[in-house]
Write a structure and sequence with these properties.
Chain lengths: 352, 352
């Protein structure tokens, strides 16, 4: 069993270190962890944010533990050399098409949301975001109109098979939960969305127990504020998913606690190949100061054990230790507490 | 002075009736109001959601008072015949490129937001949304890939001149407020956004007093939940503006109270040509029941008088009467009250 550890930029290395420490403490027989460079740090060392060696190590693994990428030093580089291209490149090269982002308030932390506690406390949803298509990966560039006007353009598109593949993931996810699926699109304006909606309706025939609803993205952004507790599984494309999943995680209020899985098509010996990362970014402003909350990365490691390595019991142990740590009031600065990165990591270790 | 009244579908006619009543009560000399069909009701009567006569009446006016379009009966029509095409068609044909959506909590109504009252109470922002470009109006359609896979596509783009035009509106708006402008894009992924950002930076040179910041759209969706009070003016494109402006209005909590202006390039005798509409939709579920809150349409009428007819004093009178009505506790069902459409309209009339 192999885990590729891609710590990346900013607070990535410090939060990843704690998550690796937690996995090591479980002393899983036959488990190997291999570090590789990614993001701005990889660009600085090799001239590329996603060096071929890194891609090879990632590909040879059963699951990838990912920290964060993003480095203000790289903002003026050409697009293909920027740190963000590393995560986009991994998603595409490894066909990590299904991004799962659970959003749920940890018991006792309802008061940390900007939403009223009774609204935040009701949140228990999963966003299923397509990750390999949409305007992210279409043709893009600059062109000059006849009148000399410069123009930037990006082609948005989805194909039948791309929508079908992610729709099945979403319906299966709904089957394991409250069996309600809300598909979000902008079919009143976009043909990409019209195709999306048509295919989702087709796939729905195979899941008669799931109650399917369609919602325009502008309305979804409203409902995620007004009554986020009404959602169970939300299915959406790459761009809308980027926006709505960040919005949903902020509704929960504890962005330092939220993990994500990006699953591929390949089956590993005991699960599905995937990449696991905290939903927060590289936070350059607090990098290297020992202030970052490693919980989201530790929870991402638990997701990796569960989904890619089939180690559900070990994943449960980690999640229970995290819940216990929070219940004991050991909170990072993001939650108004004063515990630092290693203090939180050690507290989780002590409760494993 | 001419106002075109396009009441449209669903609750459109009943809320528009109250707003027209308020304008009539002001007995403005030389003011003419002309009704015209739009949306599903226009399609049913003429076979087109935006009949040529309607476009002519709109074009010949100084400002358009718009109710709402959207009718579930029309959902299965071809795209170009659906009610939504009427509002998109008006925006494009009349070059209504600048959508202004103020979001501010009315005194005493902080408790109606899903956000904590101290968070909601701090909201005082304007979203400036570009309305004539982006993926809304690019080439779009369906195509079949070599392998037979159906695909839907929509081209997103912005040109230098389109961005420049809306950026000036946003900077001027910021100059009249707290002089802070946040431009929202997704420049880490989209070339359309890269051009957007480059042009906004250029235009900023002409407004040295305005503090300009750039934010990715996913982060903006988070900050609008976490700390919406930090925004002053938000500038963004058509698609992101659709999502964020609805999100912001729901943060305020009283969607039945929010008006919007869509301004064009043409100057009228006393202002700028524009279309004014409540941000809520046609709400078919409560249409015809006398339950809809007409406040947002009445406030849209006030914006029309101010921006297109130069009647600032009259606009102030309407806004004061609305504030007084709310302060007197006359609230519609959307705010947990029991006042119906005509009762609210009459209450505003009584306080004019
Ligand atoms: C870094 C960026 C390219 C990325 C995205 O837009 O997908 C991020 O926002 C995310 O959601 O993982
Ligand atoms: C009805 C629809 C086409 C429209 C839009 O997306 O612009 C609406 O949502 C709006 O914001 O005015």
């Amino acid at each position: 069993m192999k885990i590729a550890v891609l710590a990346g930029d900013g607070i990535g290395p410090e939060v990843t270190r704690e998550a690796v420490g937690v996995i090591e403490r479980l002393a899983i027989p036959g488990l190997e962890m291999t570090d590789a460079l990614v993001g701005g740090v990889a660009y600085k060392a090799t001239g590329h944010p996603l060096p071929p060696e890194t891609l090879e190590i990632a590909r040879a693994s059963d699951g990838i533990l990912f920290g964060a990428v993003g480095d203000p030093d790289c903002d003026s580089l050409e697009r293909h050399l920027r740190p963000e291209q590393a995560i986009l490149g991994l998603r595409k090269a490894l066909t990590l098409f299904a991004n799962l982002r659970p959003a749920k308030v940890f018991a006792g932390l309802e008061g940390h949301s900007a939403l009223r506690p009774e609204v935040a406390g009701a949140i228990d949803l999963v966003i299923v975001r397509e990750l390999n298509g949409d305007v992210y990966f279409g043709e893009k560039g600059f062109r000059t109109a006849a009148n000399g006007d410069r123009e930037g353009y990006d082609v948005m598109s989805y194909s039948d098979s791309e929508v079908r593949r992610i729709a099945h993931v979403a319906f299966r996810t709904a089957m394991g939960r409250a069996r309600r699926l809300c598909s979000v699109d902008k079919a009143n304006v976009l043909e990409t969305s019209q195709l999306w909606r048509d295919v989702v309706i087709e796939v729905a025939q195979e899941y008669p127990e799931v109650a399917l609803e369609h919602m325009y993205v502008d309305n979804a952004a409203m409902q995620l504020v007004r009554a986020p507790g009404k959602f169970d599984v939300v299915l959406t494309g790459n761009l809308f998913g980027d926006i709505l999943s960040d919005q949903a995680s902020m509704c929960v209020g504890s962005i330092g606690l939220l993990a994500s899985a990006s699953l591929g098509e390949r089956e590993t010996a005991h699960g599905t190949f995937g990449l696991y990362e905290p939903i927060h970014g590289s936070a350059p402003d607090i990098a290297g100061k020992g202030l970052a909350n490693p919980m989201a990365t530790i929870l991402s490691a638990a997701m990796l054990l569960r989904h890619s390595l089939g180690l559900a019991a070990e994943a449960d142990r980690i999640e229970a230790a995290v819940a216990k740590t929070l219940a004991d009031g050991i909170l990072g600065g993001d939650l108004g507490g004063s515990a630092g990165t290693t203090e939180i990591g050690d507290a989780v270790l002590a409760r494993l």
